[in-house]
């Protein structure tokens, strides 16, 4: 933003703030929002720019929510409200690494050997209620780290279903050590690479043994600290929501973990765990449309780790 323009904006903003009770209220809301999300800015200029982005996002959200019913979902102001769309994508979405799908693809025969069936799936599943989903994590500054959290979440939950034992596993282990599988720490990566890495090393360390530091560090994997292992990875049939209904998945260039599904007021939804902390979405989760032509690509390139 050019200095002159900024001055004018600053002037009109200040004038407006001085003018109306409502503007003072908005400024108060901004201060509260900053406090809630631990925001601080390097200069007044940066704060003003961020405030303007926040105002415009807030306006967009309010306008959307007036018609929330027709969209099928409502929005709310979260910790990313001072970011512009493009900027957000750059910081938090990873470039999708082109990965030759070298995983075994789900077939009807494989379904039988896995003991999965399309016909007897319950109407409603929420694994959080069964105690097999660890708390929502916050990947923090490690922008593209979602691939590591999704992979870890999938291994945690499939292991817990198989063994009854739920443990936090180390996303840091994957961020630091899976580079020979095409991953680049906090820059970019794929769930596929993370899962292949886990198969190759014979497991992944516990979070306790290998804690999260939100940046790429030296690989310090120790086989004696392994908390879970997987023997392979199955690639679900591309775009098949009925396959996904039986499995755990990742989604395009931001990876998330599907932990359940159901139907509310005749609307089918997926329950999806993210890694942007519990302030984001609904306590860290998002509910996404199900059986709406694979909306948002939820069943595209979905993977399932095999214990
Ligand atoms: C994410 O993926 C979408 C669809 O494949 C693509 O249009 C978009 O440019 C990607 N974004 C980033 C930041 O890689
Ligand atoms: C996992 O870590 C969280 C803190 O992030 C902790 O509250 C929880 O008890 C740990 N264990 C399990 C099994 O979720
Ligand atoms: C999966 O489906 C999407 C959307 O239809 C398509 O763009 C993509 O190329 C497919 N991927 C594979 C590996 O077939």
Summarize the structure.
This protein has 307 residues and is α+β, with helices and mostly antiparallel strands. The chain has helices spanning 3-19, 21-36, 44-66, 68-71, 85-92, 108-114, 146-163, 171-177, 191-201, 241-244; strands spanning 104-105, 125-126, 204-205, 226-228, 232-235, 257-264, 267-273, 285-289, 303-306.
SSE diagram, text form:
Elements: H1 3-19, H2 21-36, H3 44-66, H4 68-71, H5 85-92, E1 104-105, H6 108-114, E2 125-126, H7 146-163, H8 171-177, H9 191-201, E3 204-205, E4 226-228, E5 232-235, H10 241-244, E6 257-264, E7 267-273, E8 285-289, E9 303-306
Parallel strand pairs: 1-5
Antiparallel strand pairs: 2-6, 3-4, 5-9, 6-7, 7-8
Helix pairs in contact: 1-2, 7-8, 7-9
This protein binds 2-acetamido-2-deoxy-beta-D-glucopyranose (3 copies).
One 2-acetamido-2-deoxy-beta-D-glucopyranose (NAG) is lined by residues 89, 93, 95-96, 252-253.
Word description of this protein:
Helix content is 37%, strand content 12%. Strand 6 (257-264) and strand 7 form a beta hairpin. With 307 residues, it is an alpha+beta fold. Helix 7 (146-163) packs across helix 8 (171-177) and helix 7 (146-163) packs across helix 9. The chain is globular. Bound molecules: 2-acetamido-2-deoxy-beta-D-glucopyranose (NAG) (3 copies). One 2-acetamido-2-deoxy-beta-D-glucopyranose binds next to loops.
């Amino acid at each position: 933003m050019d200095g002159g323009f900024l001055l004018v904006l600053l002037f009109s903003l200040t004038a407006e703030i001085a003018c109306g009770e409502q503007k003072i209220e908005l400024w108060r809301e901004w201060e509260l929002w900053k406090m809630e999300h631990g925001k601080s800015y390097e200069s007044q200029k940066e704060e003003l720019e961020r405030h303007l982005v926040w105002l415009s996002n807030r306006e967009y959200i309010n306008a959307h929510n007036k018609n929330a019913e027709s969209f099928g979902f409502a929005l709310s102001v979260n910790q990313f409200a001072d970011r512009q769309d493009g900027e957000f994508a750059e910081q938090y979405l990873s470039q999708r690494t082109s990965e030759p799908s070298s995983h075994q693809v789900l077939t009807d025969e494989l379904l039988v050997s896995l003991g999965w069936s399309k016909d007897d799936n319950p109407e409603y599943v929420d694994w959080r209620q069964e105690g097999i989903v660890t708390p929502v994590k916050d990947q923090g500054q490690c922008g593209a780290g979602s691939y590591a959290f999704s992979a870890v979440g999938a291994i945690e939950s499939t292991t817990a279903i198989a063994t009854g034992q739920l443990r936090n596993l180390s996303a840091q282990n994957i961020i630091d050590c899976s580079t020979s599988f095409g991953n680049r720490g906090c820059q970019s990566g794929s769930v596929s690479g993370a899962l292949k890495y886990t198969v190759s090393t014979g497991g992944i360390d516990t979070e306790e043994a290998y804690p999260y530091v939100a940046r790429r560090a030296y690989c310090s994997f120790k086989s004696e600290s392994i908390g879970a292992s997987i023997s392979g990875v199955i690639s679900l049939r591309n775009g098949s929501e009925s396959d996904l209904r039986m499995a755990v998945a990742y989604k395009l260039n931001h990876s998330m973990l599907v932990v359940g599904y159901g139907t509310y007021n005749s609307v089918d939804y997926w329950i999806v765990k993210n890694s942007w902390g519990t302030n984001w979405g609904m306590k860290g989760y998002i509910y996404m449309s199900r059986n709406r032509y694979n909306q948002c690509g939820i069943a595209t390139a979905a993977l399932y780790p095999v214990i």
